[in-house]
Amino acid sequence: MPAPLSDKDYQRLSATLTRLAPQGAMSLEHMDGFFTALLAGPEALSATATLPLVLGPAFDDDESFTSVKALEQFVDLVGRHWRDIADTLRSGAEFQPWLEEDAAGEVRGNDWAEGFSAGMQLFNDDWAEVFDHPQLGEALAPIMALAFERDPDPEMRPFLGEVDEVRRAEWLGAIGPAVSALYGFFSARRAALEVEYGDD
What we know:
Elements: H1 7-20, H2 28-40, H3 51-55, H4 68-91, H5 110-121, H6 124-131, H7 134-147, H8 165-197
Helix pairs in contact: 2-4, 2-5, 2-8, 5-7, 7-8
């Protein structure tokens, strides 16, 4: 069983994604949100299957990595981060999103939430029922608020103007419980379907 990523591993992973950002690669925070939505949601892809989405145009650029070994090391780090999230969710341990400080030294959470929203969009129809669910819809609201806070369309933003520190702290603090609740919901639904169609 591969070991969880160390601080040095995360530094290497973040540095690679930052280097490839001009080519459209996700940041580590964005990727963490993206992976979390896929693993907590209705149907998890494999980590390898997500690489074209994580890297963007850099995925098809032969010069993105200096060698095959460098690419293999990157794929290994991505896969281990994916497993770290999956193991946390399966174990029922407290989920903590990977949130980074911006250039001003503030933790805003928008990249993570935008990544989560991007993961949801891959299975839009399945996620639609969450919005109509009284408890889960409310749990998801803070993530959606962060995801659309920077939307260029003012009508898509939940709040116009600056969000105060108290409200942002509330939104960020609500991410972990929301992810756990969503994972529980979709896990139960998958289990029910397996029982229903298990003999087919």
